[in-house]
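Box 3.1 A note on notation
Throughout this textbook, protein chains are presented in two layers. The first layer is the amino acid sequence; the second is a token string describing backbone geometry. Keep the layers aligned when reading.
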Amino acid sequence: MNELTAFIEGGQLSVSRLLLQHYQTLRMSSDELVVYLQLSDFASQGDTFPDLAVIGERMGLAPTQIYELIHQLLKKKIITLNSTVNEQGQPVDHYDLTPALSKLSVLAVQQNQAALNSQETNQRQIGWI
């Protein structure tokens, strides 16, 4: 197997540009961003509550450090932890990553509105409006 085939078979993860450009606006550290991306990768494969040790191995961090980073994401309401009951009546936990996307959507709308307001102000100053 050549390197390109191995790369392609490794899979892809789609990441929002808004997240990459504005994660600091959400008060996320670089490590928290990588943990978020790891959670997203696992979720894309159907695992919404991955083992912290596995994430730690991927990042070169101890599971306790991963736990603390996830705790910070929960505290900042970037992710939520939800519990449901499976078919056997047992509680099952899973991370919900959509709160970050909701915050980014609000930020995008605010930025678009600010840009429109700025453009309108400039046009008024020039006398176009």
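The chain is about 60% helix and 10% strand. The helical segments are 3-9, 17-22, 30-44, 52-59, 63-75, 98-126.
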